[in-house]
Please model this.
Amino acid sequence: MAAPDAAAWSHGTAAQTGVLLVNLGTPEAPTALALRRYLREFLSDPRVVELPRLLWWPILNGIILPRRAGKSAAKYAAIWTPRGSPLLVGTADLSRAVAAELAAAGHRVLVRHAMRYGSPGVAAALDAFAADNVTRVLLVPLYPQYCAATTASTVDAVAAWLRRTRRLPELRVLNHFHDQPAYIDALASKVRAHWSAHGKPDVLVTSFHGMPARTLHAGDPYFCECQKTARLLAERLELPGSAYRVTFQSRFGRQRWLEPYTEPTLRELARQGVGRVDVICPGFAVDCLETLEEIAIGAKQAFLSSGGREFHYIDCLNAEPRWAQAFAGLIETQLQGWDTRSPADPDELLRSRAAAQALGARG
Model:
């Protein structure tokens, strides 16, 4: 994609601040063709699959894509909504809700959303910011816990755009928010509301997206941050250690991943006589395939078929008003030092524009 057209630049235009919310990504449709395109982009990211390219390319293109695209398409079809992909819809809703909260707090910021893989892409969102003279960008990867495969990969996409851009914006990154009180409070409120309507379970299972176990030993803090999120949530809910579990889902391939695994844990709980479990996924800001299909459908079937009596999936925070307000407050702290409240001085803008025009005339 080409860089923003320098010929269209207007010197003296009021500078803006942009907030870019980025989620993982989604296919454009629940079809094998769309999944093939999406999975190729996703699984080609060296942050996601840390194998030598010469080894990985034949496996990806000759085995993974032909076999997995159709199966994944069927799973997406099971959760697709009239508005489209739940992840894209939920992220867009959260973006609008955060924009409204920031505006209500008096901030003049542009809020957009993007997908790391698929559309709308990170580069397209940054191009749009550049066209609006956004000179300060707060990047908000929508991953509560930092992981190289998600947060760092998002920064990689921004860095690729920066390499072809003439006028670099100031850039800040919200690296993680796994232990922020506003986030933990929102999770606890979500759980309590569910329990108020449906009663309490025997065990609360917190399921996080899995990563290869070697990433922990390589220095990735993801595992530790997941553990901390679960512990803080349990403390806020006043749960003893026996009343909750921390697990990891979405394994891929034969290598060892972070443990314990979600589905085997649920089967074992059922065999031990645990009648009811509730599952929440605090590693996902917005509901998606991994929560709506893998957990709400697949994990439920695994638990019930193993002898469990009752299974409840507790939705992600999504764009719920309480969370949107809290998340906007968290973003607001990252904007400190950037003047996002005072209106631009029209006289100063006129002087800047006149000076730029005079310089152009002399050139």
Remarks:
- The chain has two domains: 6-26+85-176+321-334, 181-314.
- The domain at 181-314 is CATH 3.40.50.1400 (Rossmann fold).
- Strands lie at 16-25, 109-117, 134-141, 170-173, 203-209, 244-249, 276-280, 310-314.
